[in-house]
Amino acid sequence: MLFKNFLHKSFLGLFILFNIHLLSAQQLPLFTHYYWNEQNYNPAYIGSKEIFHAQVLNRLQWVGMNGAPNTFNAAIHTPLSKDNIALGVNFYNDRIGILSNNGISVQYAYRLKFKDKYTLSLGIQAGAEFRHFQSSKINTDDGIPDLLNINNFEKSWMPHIGTGVYFYGQNFSIGLGIPQLLPKGVFKDEKWGIQPAIQYFISGAYQWNIQDNFRLLPTTTIRVLPSQPLQAEFSVNAILYDQFMVGTGVRTDKTTSFLVQYMPTFDHGEKKLNIGYSYDLSWKALRTANSGSHELMISFGMQVFKPSNIIYKSPRYF
């Protein structure tokens, strides 16, 4: 029995330590619809759709594993009547086992227009993340939940300030987002819990309008975290009749993704709806312990303020 208790405690301790490292290394949630959710890590993205835009997204990762990640994200953004200014709000809830994070940020972007075709957006954001280690959900043979003294930081919060730049036109976009600029040194006190790490998100897309009823949209995002392996994902999406999208992608964590979207417009094109679903399949040994990852996205957009000098000859899908 003593040996069994030792093994149980050792496994639980390693599990908690692994998740703490995961939060410290990755911090922001992972999405397969990453290119339709750039607001989550780049505040300069807001306003780029040139309409009022609201979106919700839910991701169930590694379905079938106890305590697997479950992420919900909701965001809104819009350009203002003075359309070189855009505002947005982003919220996420990320749960991994006994860990729960709630993050919210308010975002501002200033947009510079060039030749009525290109926009350079400079964004900033400020907000906070609230963390909760739910030690009551830990079950051990001897009833002792705080193996690593996690009560010392069972509930904590962390302010964050971020920035980004986003350059885009009718058929391309390039972005750099830094969602947390505050260095680790600010959070040395134990009350802050896990110390953050500065991450860089580099994104890019190009839309080939091959025919009126057929377009190709390759996208990529690269996540750079000092002292950690580079993480990247790349996808190719086909747009059919301006209403349907199908795509596939790969991620450096040995994952293949499949994506479909339905994108109807109504009220003479003034309102837009987007319903998307994706499925991820891992190549790693972890595949035998779960049935894959599922993601559902629903977004709605409508024209509130008419852009003064942005004219797109064909639809944009990013």
Give a structural overview.
The protein is mainly beta. It has a single domain (2-302), classed as Porin. 8% of the residues lie in helices and 49% in strands. It has one helix and 16 strands. The chain has a 14-stranded antiparallel β-barrel. A hairpin with a 5-residue loop joins strand 2 and strand 3. The longest helix is centred in the first third of the chain and has 24 residues, at 2-25.
Q: How would you summarize what this structure contains?
A:
By secondary structure, this protein is mostly beta strands.
Over all CA atoms, what is the radius of gyration? 21 Å
Q: What is the CATH architecture annotation?
A: Beta Barrel
Main β-sheet description = 14 strands, antiparallel, barrel
Low-pLDDT runs of 5+ residues are 1-26
The total domain count is 1
Distance from first to last alpha carbon: 57 Å
Q: In CATH, what is the class?
A: Mainly Beta
The name of the CATH topology is: Porin
Proportion in helices: under 10%
Name the overall outline: globular
Find the CATH superfamily. Answer: monomeric porin ompg
Tally of strands = 16
Proportion of residues in extended strands: over 45%
* Average residue pLDDT: 81
